[in-house]
Amino acid sequence: MSEVSFYNTAISIPSLAQRTTLAATIIDQEPRAALLKRALELVAEDHGGQVVDHILDCDSKAIPCLLGVQTREFPRGIGVVVGPQGEVSFAYDAFGDTADWGKRLAGEIQANYNAIAVHLALQVMNLEVQVRETRTPQGRLIQLEGKV
Questions:
Q1: Phi, psi torsion values for 72, nearest 5 degrees
Q2: Could you tell me the pTM of the whole model?
Q3: Do 7 and 90 meet the contact criterion of CB atoms below 8 Å apart?
Q4: How many other β-carbons are positioned within 10 Å of the β-carbon of residue 59?
Q5: Rounded CA gap, 11 and 28, in Å?
């Protein structure tokens, strides 16, 4: 039985409110959408997956989403959906996900988004930004340092 659930994030992109597809022009016009797509691409790279436009439920039924990522560990995928006010949520079917891969990957997407956003904010503040990335068994560790 399908158990697709939606998990809220602190990310908000009002210009994407209630969109079901993501056109390339929107990414060009909306920096937060580009950040979100890059965050998913990093997770896909880290886990040998791919960015997709739908996820699967436990019955292999396709569920459209704005953006999604499917990995070896979680082949049904995690989708990004945007609500009426632009609030971003993750959608995935956790049925049988005893290792909590859905939750882990959603956390990685959010962490990547936050790191990219902070990096860009520091640059806008005219700070010299140093980025150190380390791969650990738990995932990617990104350290940012801004200097005047």
A1: -60, -40
A2: 0.84
A3: yes
A4: 9
A5: 18
Residue 35, number of CB atoms within 10 A of its CB: 21
Residue with tokens 């959608």, as numbered in its chain: 91
Domain residue limits, the chain: 4-147
**Structural contact between residues 92 and 5, judged by C-beta atoms closer than 8 angstroms:** yes
Q: What is the pLDDT along the chain (148 residues), one digit of tens a residue?
A: 667 888 888 888 888 886 766 666 666 678 888 899 999 999 999 999 999 999 999 899 999 998 999 999 999 999 999 888 999 999 999 998 999 999 999 999 998 998 888 878 877 888 777 777 777 776 677 776 767 6
Is the separation of the CB atoms in 30 and 5 below 8 Å?
no
Where would I find the beta strands (DSSP E) of the chain?
Answer: 4-12, 50-56, 62-70, 78-82, 87-93, 128-136, 139-147
* d(C-alpha 66, C-alpha 73), whole Å: 21
Are 69 and 49 a contacting pair, CB within 8 Å?
Answer: yes
